[in-house]
């Protein structure tokens, strides 16, 4: 039973975009690993941009510049 966890910043990801992610990742596992879509679980977590960092900086601060 595959479990996929997708983390994205909380910047207006739409319901339709989430649906597309779930469908696309599920199909990828079917195509590449021959997994059963009925037992493939996908979770999307939206992370506040204050809690996301890169290049030693908070993304929220970088975005302001």
In short:
The protein is of the alpha+beta class. It has helices at about 15-35, 60-65, and strands at about 5-10, 40-45, 55, 55-60. The strands form two sheets. A two-stranded parallel ribbon has the order 1-2.
- The class by helix and strand makeup works out as alpha+beta
CATH fold naming = Macrophage Migration Inhibitory Factor
Strand order in the largest sheet: 1-2
Average pLDDT value? 95
Molecular shape: elongated
Low-confidence blocks of residues:
none
**How helix-rich are the residues, as a percent range?**
25-40%
CATH superfamily: Macrophage Migration Inhibitory Factor
Total of DSSP H or I helical runs spanning 4+ residues = 2
β-strand number: 4
| SSE topology string | EHEEEH
Keywords: Isomerase
Active site: 2
Enzyme class: isomerase
Pfam family, one: Tautomerase
Key features of this structure:
single chain, 65 residues, alpha+beta, Macrophage Migration Inhibitory Factor, two-stranded parallel ribbon, two-stranded antiparallel ribbon, 2 helices, 4 strands, 38% helix
Task: Give a description of the structure.
The structure is a single chain. With 65 residues, the chain is α+β, with helices and mostly antiparallel strands. It has 2 helices and 4 strands, in the order E-H-E-E-E-H. It has helices spanning 15-33, 59-64; strands at 3-9, 41-47, 53-54, 57-58. The strands form 2 sheets. It has a two-stranded parallel sheet with strand order 1-2. Strands 3-4 form a two-stranded antiparallel ribbon. It is elongated and about 45 Å long. The relative contact order is 0.24. Residues 2-54 form the 4-oxalocrotonate tautomerase-like domain. Its EC number is 5.3.2.-. Keywords: Isomerase. It holds the Pfam family Tautomerase.
């Amino acid at each position: 039973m595959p479990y996929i966890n997708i983390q994205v910043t909380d910047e207006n990801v739409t319901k339709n975009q989430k649906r597309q992610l779930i469908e696309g990742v599920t199909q990828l596992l079917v195509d590449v690993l021959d997994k059963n879509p009925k037992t493939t679980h996908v979770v999307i977590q939206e992370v506040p941009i204050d809690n996301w960092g890169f290049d030693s900086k908070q993304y929220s601060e970088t975005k302001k510049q």
